[in-house]
Design goal:
Length: 457
């Protein structure tokens, strides 16, 4: 009898053993990051069962197939619990695409180059903040591509959300009520500017702002009753400090300061999205605590082939739910290895959230699913991002000299009220603002109190 060294359960046993022993080295057959540094091809790090859905399901599901209520049990362990319910009970469909083996397709080019160049130069200081080995603010890329603790893994999410030096996201949003109707439709713009950990030609820091981490604003451009509503977050580099939060509300006609620890409230009426939800790391990292790794293994993630550049305004078909409007058409692939991290909101005494659970793809250390739990320990909300290189057929978007990589759409589902916030990164939104990356002049245009006043009026 021939005994296979890497039988179907070998990977599962490997992941369980590494989780139990606290070993975080990514890869099953060989460490992942030396392969990425050499050729960017992950094939030799994993057995076949983790590199294709055919291998994982023994041919029962194939690339190109749809996951529906009829076959979702075959991949139940590869979905977060809310996504499973969406497919099983609410008519959601998910199309399977080939697993990405070339990790250059999972990063902005300059960010990956910085991750490789600066590997091994980061540490957590005595306060838990990320610094270089000589104690300076971080210099760009993922600080811990081979994280050795839950805090290090989560730091990769916190230090640079969008993985560009700056980003303008033109966002078209639909709010779906429990009856399946569109209750609100909003256009807004989300702007990010990192002040440290930059990877462009100007160096890692914006001069004089090394004590900050980022500026981030959001302003609404449609409909008329919320047009001008805007918020500005100024993040400190010290992750123990709350951001400074100011906003402009048209009814008050002035910029005012808001309590920054109230980060678990809708931005506007009907929306399930909170500031705390952004990138699964919307709060300073050290205002959460008790980080721990609770699992690892394969997972289905929407990490490729999700840009609809051939559609009007980059929007996409919808389906499912009571009126066929609840879910975006979405492509998912078998991610060979994710790390599952839990954390608790230790800095928020009145937080309605008791903990969050985040699934993080080890290939680029970006989250692929995020679930929050209420104070009773019941599942409350799911936040599911979709990503892609911005190229399809003859259409292509650049972030400078290279093809852009970014998020393309998001489901934010309050499973208790059954309200869905779903939005896309659109080409342009009301007000004439367009999506783009690594642009000059964003600070003066969007990221000051004067800009809030100007945008509001």
């Amino acid at each position: 009898m021939h005994i296979r060294k890497f039988d179907f359960d070998y990977s599962r046993r490997n992941f369980m053993e590494k989780t139990a022993k606290g070993i975080l080295t990514a890869g099953v057959l060989t460490p992942l990051w030396p392969l990425i540094a050499h050729s960017a091809d992950i094939t030799k790090a994993y057995p076949d069962e983790l590199l294709s859905i055919e291998g994982y399901t023994k041919g029962k599901i194939k690339t190109g197939d749809l996951i529906t209520a009829d076959n979702v049990e075959l991949v139940k362990n590869l979905l977060d619990p809310v996504a499973y319910r969406q497919v099983k009970e609410m008519g959601r469909r998910i199309r399977i695409v080939a697993s990405t083996r070339d990790v250059t397709r999972m990063y902005p080019h300059e960010y990956l180059e910085a991750t490789l160049r600066n590997k091994g130069k980061a540490k957590l200081d005595q306060d838990g903040n990320v610094v270089t080995t000589d104690g300076k603010p971080w210099i760009g890329g993922n600080p811990f591509p081979e994280g050795t603790s839950a805090n290090e893994v989560f730091a990769n999410l916190t230090l640079c959300w969008g993985r560009h030096d700056n980003s303008v996201y033109a966002v078209r949003d639909w709010e779906i009520g429990p009856d399946g109707d569109v209750s609100y439709q909003y256009d807004f713009v989300w702007v990010e500017e990192n002040t440290v950990a930059r990877v462009g030609a100007g160096g890692p820091y914006l001069k004089g702002l090394e004590d900050k981490l980022r500026f981030q604003s959001v302003f609404f451009t449609s409909p008329a009753d919320v047009k001008g509503t805007s918020y500005l977050n100024t993040w400190h580099y010290d992750q123990r400090k709350f951001p400074d939060l100011v906003g402009y509300l048209p009814a008050f006609k002035r910029v005012r300061k808001f309590p920054t620890n109230q980060r678990f409230e809708p931005l506007v009426a009907g929306m399930a999205l909170y500031l705390s939800d952004a990138w699964a790391a919307g709060d300073p990292m050290l205002t959460w605590g008790n980080y721990k790794i609770v699992g690892r293994g394969p997972f289905l993630g929407a990490v490729s082939e999700n840009w609809y550049g051939d559609h009007a305004n980059w929007e996409r078909p919808v389906h499912g739910g009571p009126k066929g409007q609840t879910f975006f058409e979405t492509q998912m692939e078998l991610c060979p290895e994710v790390i599952v991290v839990e954390a608790e909101p230790v800095g928020y005494s009145r937080a309605p959230v008791s903990k969050k659970r985040v699934w993080i793809d080890v290939r680029n250390m970006m989250y692929v699913a995020y679930v929050t739990y209420d104070r009773r320990g019941e599942i409350w909300k799911q936040f599911e991002p979709q990503y892609s290189l911005y190229e399809k057929g003859g259409a292509r978007v650049l972030d400078g000299k290279n093809t852009a990589w970014s998020w393309t759409g998001v489901h934010c589902h309050d499973i208790q009220s059954n309200r869905m916030t779903r939005f896309v990164q659109a080409k342009t939104v009301a007000g004439g603002v367009s999506s783009g990356y690594n642009q000059a002049g964003l600070y003066e245009k969007y990221l000051t109190e004067q800009a809030m006043q100007r945008l509001g009026t």
